[in-house]
Structures are given as C-alpha cells and as structure tokens.
Amino acid sequence: MRDFGQLNTLGALILPHIAFSLPFAIWMLRGFVKGVPEALEEAALFSFISAWNDFLFAKSFIISDTSQSTLPMALLVFYKPDDPDWGGVMAGATVMTIPVLIFFVLVQRRLVSGLGGAVKD
C-alpha cells in the first residue's frame, strides 16, 4: 500500500477485504445459488422489476406533491442536475433499507423454511 500511496486511506482497508473475502464468499455461495430453481429466480426478477417500476409510475403519473411521494421519489430531493448530492442520495438509500433489513431479520426463519416448498418440480 505504501508503494501505491494508499497508507492511511480507506482504500488500504477495502482492497485487502475484497481480495481475501470475495473469493471465499463466492465459493461458499456458489452451491446455494446453483440450487435455486429457475422459476424462483424469475419470480424474484419480476418482483424486483415491480419494485423498480414503483419509482417510474410515481414519477410518470402522479406525484408532484412531496407528501404523497414514494421513498425512491424522495431521493430526488438530493439529486440536482447541476450539483447532485451523492452523499445524501447514498445516505437516503441506506436509511431506506433499514426497515427491509429489520423485516428480514424478523421473518428470516419462516422465509428460509418456506423456500423449500416455493417451487415444486
């Protein structure tokens, strides 16, 4: 890191973690991902697209009143074409994930046990 001028930087911490942790995580998760049925992957893709469209529908059809806007629309407060506040956007996106993480922790056992019967061959 000294040769690259990265001492006392965040990059000096991030790069070794990526180099050592990422290959192990990929190796461990490969078997799990390989075992996910194709129909379940397609359902997840559809759900993701629906959630993403929530932003598009709100932006396209309705919401000019900020009290009625969805959370993805609220992130536009931080984005201005001339000077986007990327720190604000990322902080808002992180705060938006907290309720989802809490929900997942609460229903994790039921969710994982239910995946076994989600798709019947």
TrEMBL record:
<dbReference type="GO" id="GO:0005886">
    <property type="term" value="C:plasma membrane"/>
</dbReference>
<keyword id="KW-1003">Cell membrane</keyword>
<dbReference type="InterPro" id="IPR050901">
    <property type="entry name" value="BP-dep_ABC_trans_perm"/>
</dbReference>
<protein>
    <recommendedName>
        <fullName>ABC transmembrane type-1 domain-containing protein</fullName>
    </recommendedName>
</protein>
<dbReference type="InterPro" id="IPR035906">
    <property type="entry name" value="MetI-like_sf"/>
</dbReference>
<keyword id="KW-1133">Transmembrane helix</keyword>
<keyword id="KW-0813">Transport</keyword>
<keyword id="KW-0812">Transmembrane</keyword>
<keyword id="KW-0472">Membrane</keyword>
<feature type="transmembrane region" description="Helical">
    <location>
        <begin position="86"/>
        <end position="107"/>
    </location>
</feature>
<feature type="transmembrane region" description="Helical">
    <location>
        <begin position="7"/>
        <end position="29"/>
    </location>
</feature>
